[in-house]
């Protein structure tokens, strides 16, 4: 035990007890002291109280009952606060007395008698060689294990005396003489410093040791032997703060102020003072002494008596400490102890509650004061000076450094960042938020309101706080502290204890991780979570590109509990781009280039997604992967989910309640984007996600899963979603038009393709080609029209004649697709949604417009829908290609009669109604001359036709007159063909002819009979219109041309000039007969002459 305290003997002097303290005088006795008794052999009954040099001090400072006990007198006098309280001669006498006590080997026998049973129990002490003073030194080392009362009192008193002066500690002077002189910590010469200043010498050396560890400028390298001696002194004084003389005198008033009721021993006073270190009433000198003590504990956990005692068994159990000749070795550091035992706790091993309590105290200590971590003091010096000076209390400096590390206050040195990350792992605040005092104080109100249902200290408190980030319940200070801590927790998956607990098996199996406090160069801590979420969301069957490192784990998936935790972490990380280490690392440049002005929550990721094509490859890959992940589980977008809560509860709660989201929730939100519950934030978020999806078809999870095989087969090398949709839609359309026996696009893909086409029709921005082609026209003609509900597209259609050529061509192509498939006409389907349900439930989707046209004039038809149908009819009349029924019916006649028009047209240009005009009879001039007002009307309700019927007599052109007569004839056969009459008589049909089926003039005959029946009262307007129709039909019958022989015979027989007509016909027949006779005679005569020859 050469390095331990060598105290030959301390005589336990009770009142009147053995008092051979005079013994053989020590070296100090040879120096005469003024006013003191000369060195002499003192009697057994000699008492300090009898010495003249100390009598005045003793009477003034010590209670009378202690005068007969030399040890009590010594303890009383040496514990006085001020050096000037005791006369110098008395001080020197006390020193000589203590030196004599510790240098007389005869008194070892007293220790043997008092501690007989204890020595037998402690094998190390029983084995010590007697007579050399090592026995008492051994008892000091093991005083924590002494249970015998008298022995314990003896060792306690002896220890108090020894630690009052470093010169009494054997070997200390020899080992630290050079360092004391170099550091100017004081002289070791007897008499130059009194006993009260000796604690300052130790404190000076301890500060020098701390400066060296922090590599401060000008720090002196203390010799290793002296280092061990210093740490040994600190260790031996760990149980009773009286033994740390400098700290004792520095904190004596503070002890009375804060820890008056805390009994000394077992390090209790130290812990109490540590807990009050940052109180305003704490003296600066005491705070400095406590900090030095804490720094020594950080270098060697044994300097903390309570921690070493509480965790001794656990350290041995989990092999956290190893024998070493160097107390400052790695195994002795507080950080190593914490990491080792925290690893055991996180692995589910049993660590005693007492030890865990001590660990919690020291983890909190590390988080409160950054200066206890030498690495941070060394490597973060410039950051502290630049940004965080003056904030050292209650963990504020540490959080300031964390904020710098996040990049919120400039760049941070790599070594400083690493030191911060190491400290967070050592303190492990993720396991208990209370360790982080700054966070605890900032978030107390939030925890009390939003997280009161969670047990105090539970790791789920941090998750609860993250869930309420950017909500009304969150306060700004808590938000900052929380993000600063989560930034570092996000960079090491082990620092989230719940994630580690649920996923440690999966991480070891799939990602080849090691223990909690072990490092792995092949897969750093920040990459483990990326590995976990790849296995959680993207299996090989889903088309995930397997990395070489994952080749052996194909088909491996996470456990259910682990996947739930991975989802939770992803939801939290989506709140702030800096919480995703891989994203921030790869996209740092792009964030600065494109998104420097995006400071609101969630804006940075949206910005990166908006600039997807402009990002560097590595950044684009990680943003693409994250976007693809969001398409599968949009609940990762926590901010969007909060904004959309009302519409989710009203329309999508069944989908949202599913534990596994496969894109259904986003699809539901898109479908309900225009519901009344939809707010602006949610609508903007949903639209943004739709816009992002068009950049790559893989960003639409359901579409990707339904059509990935079709895309690979039919549309290879196409990436943009809109191009993939067009490619597949064109394939489906061609197969349909060509009556292919088997569709090349699978059924499940066709079904999802329809969903994507409908979504794209809702907002022009979802069709990039159309939007880019028409952007200039939109700004010119539709600048006040809002996106969504296809309003901008409808605006372009209404202003089609004013569009630029490129935009006009794109709009025409869009209309052609919509007319072929009216379900893609978003405005028509939206405006006429209820009418479709009423009239066209049985109609095929592609015949919806035709069905609506047939029911257009029904009295039950909604006016807005009717107007929309009319618009579409007008559009169809502009080009035969926009009228699928006409195009199909006239596919043979159009090339036959209108080829010249087709030859002049190009595929992208609109024919402006030329083909339809070619097919119709040319009576447009009659319409414009006779019915200008009706022709100009936007809504076609039959008024033009009615005007033509009324003005039938004035129509000069036979072709137009014939068309009008045909209309009259058709209306007689079916009243629905006559919209004016049908509208006027709708109520009467319902009342009088409801049971009569339409067609073949049946309902018209019913109305005519009702008109003749005087008992039936028709509506005035209906009665008037019917009478007009009777007159028109009468006139039409007179002037209408006969369509056949029977029709001609009927007209002749009913004509007033019947006899005249018959006479003329008879005369014509007679003339023909006579001419035939004459011609026959001539022919016959020629033939006879030929015969006669």
Care to give the gist of this entry?
The chain is mostly helical and 1093 residues long. Among the domains are: 428-488, no CATH class; 578-629, no CATH class; 821-877, no CATH class; 885-932 and 939-1041, no CATH class.
Our measurement of the CA-to-CA distance between the termini, rounded to an integer number of angstroms, reads 174 Å
Q: What percentage of residues falls in helices of 4 or more residues? A: 55-70%
Question: What is the overall shape?
Answer: rod-shaped
**Count of β-strands:** 0
What is the average of the pLDDT values?
A: 77
The low-confidence runs, each spanning 5 or more residues with pLDDT under 50, are: 1-44, 187-196, 323-328, 539-555, 921-941
Helix count, per DSSP? Answer: 61
Proportion of strand residues: under 5%
Q: Write down the Rg.
A: 51 Å
What's the main sheet like? Answer: none
Descriptive report:
- This is Golgi apparatus protein 1.
- Residues 1-23 form the signal peptide.
- By secondary structure, the protein is mostly helical.
- Among the domains are: 428-488, no CATH class; 578-629, no CATH class; 821-877, no CATH class; 885-932 and 939-1041, no CATH class.
- The protein is built from 61 helices and no strands.
- α28 (497-511) packs across α30.
- The termini are far apart.
- The model is unreliable at 1-44, 187-196, 323-328, 539-555 and 921-941 (pLDDT under 50).
Describe the SSE topology.
Layout: H1 52-61, H2 70-78, H3 88-101, H4 108-114, H5 116-121, H6 123-126, H7 134-141, H8 149-162, H9 172-182, H10 198-213, H11 224-236, H12 245-250, H13 252-258, H14 268-275, H15 284-299, H16 305-310, H17 312-317, H18 334-346, H19 353-368, H20 374-379, H21 381-387, H22 396-406, H23 414-427, H24 437-442, H25 444-450, H26 460-467, H27 476-489, H28 497-511, H29 525-537, H30 560-573, H31 581-594, H32 603-610, H33 617-632, H34 638-643, H35 645-651, H36 653-656, H37 664-671, H38 680-693, H39 701-714, H40 721-737, H41 747-762, H42 768-781, H43 791-798, H44 805-820, H45 826-831, H46 833-839, H47 848-854, H48 863-876, H49 884-889, H50 893-897, H51 899-904, H52 914-919, H53 924-930, H54 932-936, H55 943-950, H56 958-973, H57 979-992, H58 1002-1012, H59 1020-1039, H60 1045-1054, H61 1058-1092
Region (Disordered): 21-43
Protein name: Golgi apparatus protein 1
GO molecular function, one term: fibroblast growth factor binding
């Amino acid at each position: 035990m050469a390095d331990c305290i060598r105290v030959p003997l301390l005589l336990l002097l009770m009142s009147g007890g053995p008092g051979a303290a005079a013994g053989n005088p020590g070296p100090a006795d040879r120096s005469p002291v003024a006013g003191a008794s000369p060195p002499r052999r003192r009697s057994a009954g000699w008492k300090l109280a009898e010495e003249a040099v100390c009598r005045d001090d003793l009477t003034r400072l010590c209670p009378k009952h202690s005068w007969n006990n030399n040890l009590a007198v010594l303890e009383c006098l040496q514990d006085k606060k001020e050096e000037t309280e005791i006369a110098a001669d008395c001080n020197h006498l006390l020193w000589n007395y203590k030196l004599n006590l510790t240098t007389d080997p005869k008194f070892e026998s007293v220790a043997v008698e008092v501690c007989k049973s204890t020595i037998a129990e402690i094998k190390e002490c029983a084995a010590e060689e007697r007579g050399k003073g090592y026995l008492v030194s051994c008892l000091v080392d093991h005083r924590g294990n002494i249970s015998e009362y008298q022995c314990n009192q003896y060792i306690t008193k002896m220890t108090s005396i020894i630690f009052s002066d470093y010169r009494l500690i054997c070997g200390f002077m020899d080992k630290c003489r050079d360092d004391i002189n170099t550091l100017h910590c004081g002289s070791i010469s007897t008499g130059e410093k009194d006993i009260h200043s000796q604690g300052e010498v130790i404190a000076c050396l301890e500060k020098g040791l701390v400066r060296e560890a922090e590599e401060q400028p000008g720090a002196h390298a203390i010799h290793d032997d002296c280092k061990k001696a210093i740490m040994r002194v600190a260790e031996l004084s760990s149980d009773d703060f009286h033994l740390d003389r400098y700290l004792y005198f520095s904190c004596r008033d503070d002890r009375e102020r804060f820890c008056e009721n805390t009994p000394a021993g077992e390090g209790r006073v130290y812990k109490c003072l540590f807990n009050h270190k940052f109180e305003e009433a704490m003296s600066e000198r005491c705070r400095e002494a406590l900090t030095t003590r804490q720094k020594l504990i950080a270098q060697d956990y044994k300097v903390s008596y309570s921690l070493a005692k509480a965790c001794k068994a656990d350290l041995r159990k989990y092999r956290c400490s190893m024998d070493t000749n160097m107390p400052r070795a790695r195994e002795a550091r507080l950080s190593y102890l914490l990491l080792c035992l925290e690893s055991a706790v996180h692995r589910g091993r049993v660590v005693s509650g007492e030890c865990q309590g001590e660990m919690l105290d020291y983890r909190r200590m590390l988080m409160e004061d950054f200066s206890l971590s030498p690495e941070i003091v060394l490597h973060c010096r410039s950051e502290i000076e630049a940004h965080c000076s003056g904030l050292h209390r209650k963990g504020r400096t540490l959080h300031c450094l964390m904020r710098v590390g996040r990049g919120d206050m400039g760049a941070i040195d790599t070594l400083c960042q690493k030191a911060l990350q190491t400290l967070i792992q050592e303190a492990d605040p993720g396991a208990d938020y209370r360790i982080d005092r700054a966070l605890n104080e900032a978030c107390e109100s939030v925890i009390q309101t939003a997280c009161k249902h969670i047990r105090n200290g539970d790791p789920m408190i941090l998750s609860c706080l993250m869930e309420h980030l950017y909500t009304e319940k969150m306060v700004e200070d808590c938000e900052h502290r929380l993000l600063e801590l989560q930034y570092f927790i996000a960079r090491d998956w082990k620092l989230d204890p719940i994630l580690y607990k649920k996923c440690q098996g999966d991480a070891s199996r799939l990602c080849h991780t090691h223990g909690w406090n072990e490092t792995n160069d092949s897969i750093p801590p920040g990459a483990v979570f990326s590995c976990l979420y790849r296995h959680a969301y993207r299996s090989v069957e889903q088309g995930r590109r397997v990395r070489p490192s994952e080749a052996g784990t194909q088909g491996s998936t996470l456990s259910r509990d682990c996947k739930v935790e991975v989802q939770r972490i992803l939801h939290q990380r989506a709140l702030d781009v800096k919480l995703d280490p891989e994203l921030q690392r790869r996209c740092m440049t792009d964030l600065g280039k494109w998104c420097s002005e995006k400071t609101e929550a969630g804006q940075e990721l949206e910005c990166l997604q908006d600039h997807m094509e402009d990002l560097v490859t590595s950044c684009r890959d990680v943003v693409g992967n994250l976007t693809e992940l969001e398409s599968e589980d949009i609940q990762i977008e926590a901010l969007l989910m909060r904004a959309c809560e009302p519409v989710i509860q009203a329309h999508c709660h069944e989908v949202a309640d599913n534990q596994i989201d496969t894109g259904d929730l986003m699809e539901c939100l898109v479908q309900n984007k225009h519901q009344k519950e939809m707010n602006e934030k949610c609508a903007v978020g949903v639209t943004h996600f739709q816009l992002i999806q068009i950049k790559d078809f893989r960003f639409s999870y359901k579409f990707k899963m339904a059509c990935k095989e079709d895309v690979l087969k039919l549309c290879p090398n196409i990436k943009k979603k809109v191009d993939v949709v067009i490619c597949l839609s064109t394939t489906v359309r061609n197969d349909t038009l060509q009556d292919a026996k088997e569709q090349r696009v699978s059924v499940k893909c066709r079904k999802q393709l329809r969903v994507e086409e409908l979504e794209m029709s809702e907002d022009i921005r979802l069709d990039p080609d159309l939007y880019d082609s028409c952007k200039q026209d939109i700004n010119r003609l539709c600048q006040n029209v809002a996106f969504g509900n296809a309003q901008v597209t409808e605006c372009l259609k209404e202003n089609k004649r004013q569009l630029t050529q490129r935009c006009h061509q794109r709009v025409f192509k869009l209309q052609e697709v919509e007319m072929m498939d009216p379900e893609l006409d978003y405005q028509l389907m939206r405006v006429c949604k209820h009418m479709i349900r009423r009239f066209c439930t049985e109609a095929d989707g592609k015949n919806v417009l035709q069905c609506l046209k047939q029911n257009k004039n029904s009295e039950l038809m909604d006016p807005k829908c009717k107007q929309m149908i009319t618009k579409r009819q007008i559009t169809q009349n502009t080009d035969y290609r926009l009228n699928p029924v006409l195009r199909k019916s006239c596919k043979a006649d159009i090339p036959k009669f209108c080829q010249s028009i087709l030859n002049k047209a190009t595929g992208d240009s609109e024919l402006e109604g030329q083909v339809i005009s070619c097919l119709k009879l040319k009576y447009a001039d009659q319409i414009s001359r006779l019915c200008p007002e009706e022709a100009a009307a936007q809504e076609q309700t039959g008024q033009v036709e009615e005007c033509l019927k009324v003005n039938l007599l004035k129509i000069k052109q036979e072709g137009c007159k014939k068309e009008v007569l045909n209309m009259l004839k058709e209306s007689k056969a079916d009243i629905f063909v006559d919209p004016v009459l049908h509208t006027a008589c709708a109520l009467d049909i319902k009342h009088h002819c409801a049971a009569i089926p339409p067609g073949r003039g049946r309902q018209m005959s019913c109305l005519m009979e009702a008109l003749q029946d005087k008992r039936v009262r028709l509506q005035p307007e209906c009665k008037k219109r019917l009478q007009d129709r009777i007159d028109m039909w009468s006139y039409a019958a007179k002037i209408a041309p006969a369509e056949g022989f029977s029709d001609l015979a009927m007209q002749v027989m009913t004509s007033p000039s019947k006899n005249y007509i018959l006479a003329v016909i008879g005369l014509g027949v007679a003339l023909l007969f006579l001419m035939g006779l004459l011609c026959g005679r001539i022919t016959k005569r020629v033939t006879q002459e030929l015969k006669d020859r």
